[in-house]
Amino acid sequence: MTLETLDPDPNLDTDAFDDDVLAALDAEAYVFHVWGGDWCIDCQEQLPAFGAALAAAGVPADRIERYAVSKVDGRKEGPGVEEYDIEFIPTVVVESPDGEEIVRFVESEDVPIATFLADRLAEIETVA
């Protein structure tokens, strides 16, 4: 099973992404773990734009881990679901290069995934 909904939306103008968002996503060699399902409406709506933001930020593919999730008897199943306690999708976990969880996006927020993560990552950078 694949997670094609994370493929960048080719119709998005990558110049429209805020430079601060792109800079925050590509800072510190963060690793992005992304859980979703191609069958999931929320994933279909949110992940293509997030994939485009990661591409526009220049995040290399080896720092993006895709985990396709299936739904079996109302439960989410797939790689890392239990280990990372994934209940809702899309879920994006951002880790430092040494594997420490830095920030987590779960299912939905008032802003796009890239903006939500960039805002949290910028707050962490300011404190550090």
From TrEMBL:
<protein>
    <recommendedName>
        <fullName>Thioredoxin domain-containing protein</fullName>
    </recommendedName>
</protein>
<dbReference type="InterPro" id="IPR036249">
    <property type="entry name" value="Thioredoxin-like_sf"/>
</dbReference>
<feature type="domain" description="Thioredoxin">
    <location>
        <begin position="3"/>
        <end position="128"/>
    </location>
</feature>
<dbReference type="InterPro" id="IPR013766">
    <property type="entry name" value="Thioredoxin_domain"/>
</dbReference>
